[in-house]
Write a structure and sequence with these properties.
Chain lengths: 164, 806
């Protein structure tokens, strides 16, 4: 199958590659770029393990062709920590509140929460639960994930205010 | 001097040992996307393999034409049973003593069965080629109902067993019959039931479901032609057992096989079995000389690897008029699918189902389980369960509720009346188990007080009146379950899998600078072993948990062990860890005595050091002792500080718990709103409360799923109708309620640190709790039992059947 030229920015780095147009974004990230944080749990938009942030929206990378992401800016869980290695408040909060067990849903979950807390900087518990409904977790029962996201919200707010 | 020594309490806290809610060491990697799961593995020249699967549930495979598939650019090979036959690998042994086709050998027995294995340069070429493999099928009559499968003229499923009247577990009485497993005293039980004041009788179905971890099963097989070494990475809950089985079936010497379980994205029993994908990947790597990766997709996962449950349980429970249970009888029709691939200890073809007398002092009981072949996928794994304990707990907890209705008693009162009393432990059950310890009354009373049980019943009565007056369309249900688990398989004298005793192991090396590495035969799938096993060790040897690395999952380095499932890691490997730690401590004591120039008996262990008895200011810390082990020539002692322990548990452990939930059931929509869940667990000594609570939240959520909607369903033609996450219910954060957790602590008397294991308890207790709540809501209208799962449609139908829709 003929290949097309794709150009995108992933975690702040410009990327160029040749790919079959039918290549799914998740396979491109994982297999071409070696970015294995986003996982595959269903390949059918249900589980959210593959969630990445694209142009300011949460996107399920298993249900998108890399061709559709041409020119986009993508952030994955690997791009959340600060350049000096300081963990993102969400990463800290997930550890602090035991928001993960096997860790398989975690990259997608954190990436989704990262966007959710920008859409709604001080959500209620119900809003967090609703906002994460596209991401499944089989291990935690969500309780500690919700706790972690609620705990990270004010920290992210404070960081934002400090930066402004 | 004395005041210089930090108090023992402070020193103990610094160790982060037993009882500490230590943060998990695993999380630093996982939160940054640095986990290393099997699909993350990328090797030079690696190729992909995937299956052509049968669309039929029962059919003859007349021919397979590979030509068009082989012409696809990038396709390297297409393997069929014919290709595997010369190696003797077209069939493989199952864990249950049966055998299973690796690739369809003349026929298929369930939808999704593996027919051919395509190997290609990348997964896209592989998918293209799969579409082009032409398989000619001749459909055969399908049987998906285990009762119909046992009718005299039922289609013959396993032609390979023709004429075999004896199976791995005794006589077979029909061509689709696998075994009959009986426990207890049938005649005595039937006599009690015949003469009883009150008998409740019910058929209870624990439907077929699936563990569905978020990561599916997969592997990478790499055969190095030059060294003759096979390396197999995979989603294995029992890497050593996989190595032994791989050696036995492939003929490759065991020392030439290295099995590695990398990070595992949840297991819940799904990753215990041996699947055709593993075998085909190994063969393909041998044939092509290249590493081969196989990762199933979600549909493959739900349709083929490892279903759970599917037990039809016919029960009778007898009692006196005043509610003393006098006998329990149960017959199970167990649907095992096309092959008997249940993952149970060899001598237990129905697992530990004979724990079905539960938490009650029942004088006499009988259980018979008939295993049956049907045109469904094989599996029968312990989905967050210790070998059919979930089925047993569901059965008894439903039967007790049904009996309570018959007696006109409150279900809690009936339970309290029949609990095994604290002074009866160790308790010998009528079906042959020796319960190690328990205090059921205390746990139940604590639970009742916590939820204000009386208040709940009063509220329920008011709500019922409002409903009857037409002021409300919703009913309130209170679900109570009290479970006893049996975990920690198990004593080698009666527990083995394929002849491998179910002990487990730990090897510890203390480094000269006082840090350590511990290696175990288990493998974490999210349970946090790297965190908790270090805590056990920290308390045993006085080295901070933060200075101890825990390593699992590599058969080249870890001591032999039977893996992680059935809540066995803490009871078995946790015990091995403590015992190995004690060996270290014993040697450390001798070193300390030498350094302090006293007799061995004159020093005693104190948190992180050995001190002279009566003179605590004279001591040697474990750090100092470790260094001495490597730099001093101590008469009579070998240098170094290492130990290994293989722990064969003397008995199982018996965790228990009291669970209560409150539900509002909308009779017009069938929607059940779970508004309160309280879970009290007694898992003996608590190693890490934070992790225990996390396990409970997760297990309760899986229980909620199973009770309220999750199911592997088939239509009459054997088509799987719940093969995607669209139809297979997994609760999101929205459907999942908030959980209240609580505990009592009744240590196991035979476990070195008194721990019992917890991972599965919430699933065992949770399913009957949720199910009982639904039944309880409809009880005033005459409902005694309805089959799970209680999805909206089925609950609506209950309401409709009871005439609640006017
Ligand atoms: S893998 Fe993308 S949603 Fe499941
Ligand atoms: S932590 Fe395992 S799926 Fe979420």
């Amino acid at each position: 199958m003929s290949k097309m030229h794709v150009k995108l920015t992933v975690n702040g780095k410009a990327v160029e590659a040749l790919a079959e147009p039918r290549t799914l974004l998740i396979h491109f990230l994982r297999e071409e770029l070696g970015i294995t944080g986003p996982h595959i749990g269903c390949e059918s938009s249900h589980c959210g393990a593959c969630t990445v942030d694209m142009g300011g929206r949460s996107v399920k990378a298993c249900t998108m062709f890399v061709a559709q992401a041409n020119g986009a800016e993508i952030t994955t869980v690997e791009g959340l920590a600060a350049a000096d290695g300081t963990l993102h408040p969400l990463q800290e909060a997930f550890r602090e509140h035991h928001g993960l067990q096997c860790g398989y849903c975690t990259p997608g979950m954190i990436t989704r929460a990262y966007r959710l807390l920008q859409e709604n900087p001080s959500p209620t518990e119900a809003e967090v639960r609703f906002g994460l409904a596209g991401n499944l977790c089989r291990c935690t029962g969500y309780q500690n994930i919700v706790k972690a996201v609620l705990a990270a919200a004010p920290v992210m707010q404070a960081q934002k205010e400090a930066a402004e | 001097m004395n005041e210089m020594i930090p108090p023992a309490g402070d020193r103990a806290a610094a160790l982060k040992g037993l009882g500490s809610s230590r943060k998990r060491v695993e999380d630093v990697r996982f939160t940054q996307g640095k986990g290393a799961y099997v699909d993350d593995i990328k090797l030079k020249d690696m190729v992909f393999g995937d299956f052509v699967r049968s669309p039929y549930a029962h059919a003859r495979v007349v021919s397979v034409n590979k030509e068009a598939a082989l012409a696809v650019p990038g396709v390297i090979a297409v393997l069929t049973a014919e290709d595997l036959a010369p190696l003797g690998l077209h069939w493989m042994p199952t864990l249950a003593g049966d055998r299973q086709m690796v690739l369809a050998d003349g026929k298929v027995l369930y939808q999704g069965q593996e027919v051919a294995f395509v190997v290609a340069e990348n997964r896209y070429a592989c998918a293209d080629a799969i579409e082009l493999v032409e398989v000619d099928y001749e459909a055969l009559p399908v049987v998906t109902d285990p009762f119909k499968a046992l009718e005299p003229d039922a289609p013959v499923l396993r032609e390979d067993l023709a004429g075999k009247t004896e199976g791995a577990h005794g006589p077979r009485r029909h061509h689709n019959h696998i075994f009959l497993w009986e426990q207890g005293d049938r005649a005595a039980t039937e006599a009690v039931i015949d003469g009883a004041d009150v008998v409740a009788e019910e058929r209870i179905h624990y439907h077929r479901t699936h563990p569905c971890p978020l990561e599916t099963c997969g592997c990478v097989a790499s055969m190095d032609k030059i060294t003759g070494k096979l390396t197999l990475w995979g989603t294995f809950q029992a890497p050593h057992a996989v190595r032994t089985v791989a050696s036995l079936i492939s003929g490759i010497a065991e020392h030439n096989i290295r099995v590695i379980s990398p990070d595992i994205g949840g297991g819940f029993g799904n990753k215990v079995g041996v699947y055709p994908g593993y075998v085909c990947s190994i063969v393909a790597s041998i044939v092509t000389g290249r590493p081969v990766k196989w990762v199933e997709d979600r549909m493959d996962n739900l349709m083929t690897t490892a279903f759970a449950r599917d037990y039809w349980m016919d029960g009778r429970i007898a009692a006196t008029k005043d509610g003393r249970i006098t006998g329990l009888w149960c017959h199970v029709t167990a649907d095992h699918g096309g092959f008997d691939a249940c993952a149970d200890p060899t001598k237990f073809p129905a697992g530990f189902f004979n724990i079905c007398t539960g938490s009650y002092d029942i004088p006499v009981a009988y259980v018979g389980v008939d295993g049956v072949y049907t045109n469904k996928a094989p599996g029968g794994v312990a989905y967050r369960c210790s070998f059919r304990v979930t089925e047993a707990a569901y059965f008894i907890e439903r039967m007790v509720d049904i009996l309570a209705i018959k007696l006109g008693m409150d279900p809690v009162e009936l339970r309290l009346k029949n609990f095994i009393r604290k002074d009866q432990f160790p308790y010998h059950s009528a079906l042959g188990w020796e319960y190690d310890s328990g205090d059921y009354h205390t746990a139940m009373e604590q639970a009742l007080a916590a939820v204000d049980y009386k208040g709940l019943r009063a509220e329920q009565a008011e709500r019922l009146e409002a409903f009857k007056r037409g002021e409300s369309r919703s009913l309130m249900g209170v679900g109570v379950a009290f479970f006893t688990e049996i975990v920690g398989a198990g004593p080698v004298k009666n527990c083995d899998i394929l002849g491998l005793g179910m002990f487990d192991s730990c090897e510890i090396r203390i480094h000269p600078t006082g840090s350590a590495i511990a290696r175990l035969g288990t493998i974490s799938q999210g349970q946090g072993h790297a965190t908790t096993f270090a805590q056990i060790l920290a308390s045993e040897i006085g080295i901070p948990a933060d200075d101890i690395t825990v390593e699992e999952g590599d058969t080249d380095t870890a001591p032999y062990g039977l893996g992680t499932y059935g809540s066995r890691s803490t009871p078995v490997a946790g015990a091995a860890t403590a015992m190995a730690g004690r060996k270290i401590r014993a040697k450390a004591q001798m070193i300390a005595a030498y350094l302090l120039e006293v007799h061995d008996d004159d020093v005693e262990f104190d948190v992180d050091r050995f001190q002279i008895k009566g003179a605590p200011e004279r001591f040697k810390t474990m750090k100092e002792i470790a260094f001495a082990a490597y730099n001093q020539a101590i008469p009579g002692l070998e240098p170094g500080l290492e130990a290994v322990s293989y722990y064969d548990p003397p008995n199982m452990t018996y965790p228990f718990g009291a669970y209560i939930c409150v539900m509002d059931v909308d009779v017009d929509t069938g929607v059940c709103d779970v508004r309160r869940v309280y879970a009290l667990d007694d898992c003996g000594t608590r190693i890490n409360p934070m992790i225990i609570e996390g396990q409970v939240h997760g297990g309760l959520t899986e229980a909620l799923a199973i009770a309220m909607g999750q199911e592997i369903a088939y239509d009459e033609d054997g088509n799987v109708t719940t093969g995607t996450l669209m139809d297979f219910f997994i609760p999101t954060a929205v459907e999942t309620p908030h959980y209240e957790t609580d505990h009592t602590v009744t240590p196991s008397p035979h476990h070195p640190i008194g721990a019992k294991g917890v991972g599965e308890s919430p699933n065992v207790g949770g399913v009957p709790m949720f199910s009982n709540a639904v039944m309880d809501a409809f009880k005033p209208f005459g409902l005694t039992h309805a089959h799970m799962p209680h999805d909206h449609w089925r609950v609506w139908r209950i309401a409709n059947g009871l005439g609640l829709h006017g």
